[in-house]
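Forum: Protein Structure Q&A
Topic: Joint prediction for protein chains with partners

I've read a bunch of threads here and the consensus seems to be that you should model interacting components together rather than docking separate models afterwards. I'd like to see that in practice. Below is the full input, 257 residues plus whatever partners are listed. Could one of the regulars post the assembled result?
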Amino acid sequence: MPDQAPPVAVVQEKDIRIVEFTNNKILDEANIAEIGNTLNALIDEMSSPKLLLDFNTVDHLSSAALGMLINANNRIKQKNGKFRLANIKPQILEVFRITKLDKLFRIFPTRQDAVKSFSE
Amino acid sequence: MAHHKFKIPSDFGAAREVQKRILDDVKTCGYSPQPTFAIQLALEEGLINAVKHGNKFDVAKHVSVHASVDATQTEITIEDEGAGFDPGCVPDPTLEENLEKCSGRGILLIGAYMDFVQWTNGGRCLRMIKRNEDGDK
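Posted by a regular:
Agreed with the consensus. Here's the joint model:
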């Protein structure tokens, strides 16, 4: 197996964990599983998780990726945390609209807007 | 016009190679971004369904893919060797009670993004068409 960069990078801003995707595609099942494991580990280490996913780099995703996001959302809800998505390109936002997941997730146009929303 | 016929084992690596070959043709034919995105998404979902839900990764089973790509439209047929399913009986993932379920959105996305979708052979065979034009779909 060739060495590959991790599919996400995590940065911290105060008590918020911000996850950036390093690949423009969230399609491959192994890749999605690795992202899911990273998100689960972040959620598990916080008592009341505040997690923001920045989709700035993402051009493609699959229904399996949506399932991984729903799983993270459910886990965060169980811990009374907050989950935010931001910077989603129009073609990807359309996928969220078709699946009506734009009603389930809190989606913000920019990362700054999403960060601000955690203190609402 | 480019025609492809593939018979691949039930694994994602082989499916990835099929996707690449078909999408290379789509790009060569000069498709605009919207239909290119639609074809990529539907192809991904169709192949995952066939490998994972249809053949259940059974190495003894194969997935057959036919693709015809020209400048006006792309037609793709994906057929697995699994038990089949009734597409009409798949729960609607957009209903409020199903929104938090982690699966069941692939078929919805295929239908939303392609111009024509047909399931035959007891749900084992998916035929789908996307025209090369910018539109609502």
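Strands of chain A lie at 8-13, 16-21, 25-26, 50-54, 60-61, 82-86, 106-108.
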